[in-house]
């Protein structure tokens, strides 16, 4: 699998990891790693800031795919295959059907911003 194909697969695997997180058949330890992976994928804060030349992008190229790969290995194969199929069906004519999945991330960042404002005042 070349780099371009792997990038496309990675784009499909992130929503599948989120769907696996919601499945009751997914083991608890896989759910914890899936939650960390999804949080890291959608967080604007990186482990290594992007403004640092070369190193800044290594986390996007190495850490996130590694977290996704380990999460996939922890989820039973048949469950993850089902999640991949479901994740492909989430998109309809380029529009995401389940936009409200972003609400927990927005809520977390809203709380962080509110706490920072309160701390600075």
What does this structure look like?
With 121 residues, this protein is mainly α. The protein has one domain (3-120). It has five helices and two strands. It has helices at 3-22, 28-42, 55-74, 77-89, 103-120; strands at residues 91-92, 95-96. It has a two-stranded antiparallel sheet. A hairpin with a 2-residue loop joins β1 (91-92) and β2 (95-96). The longest helix is centred in the N-terminal third of the chain and has 20 residues, at 3-22. The termini are far apart. The relative contact order is 0.14. The model has no long low-confidence stretch (mean pLDDT 80).
Task: Give me a quick take on this structure.
This protein has 121 residues and is mostly helical.
């Amino acid at each position: 699998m070349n780099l371009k194909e792997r990038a496309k697969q990675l784009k499909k695997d992130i929503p599948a990891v989120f769907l696996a997180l919601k499945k009751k058949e997914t083991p608890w330890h896989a759910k914890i790693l899936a939650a960390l992976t999804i949080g890291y994928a959608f967080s604007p804060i990186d482990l290594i800031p992007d403004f640092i030349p070369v190193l800044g992008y290594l986390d996007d190229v190495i850490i996130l795919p590694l977290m996704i790969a380990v999460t996939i290995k922890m989820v039973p194969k048949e469950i993850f295959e089902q999640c991949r199929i479901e994740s492909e069906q989430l998109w309809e004519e380029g529009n995401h059907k389940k936009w409200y999945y972003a609400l927990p991330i927005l809520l977390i960042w809203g709380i962080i911003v509110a706490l920072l404002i309160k701390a600075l005042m």
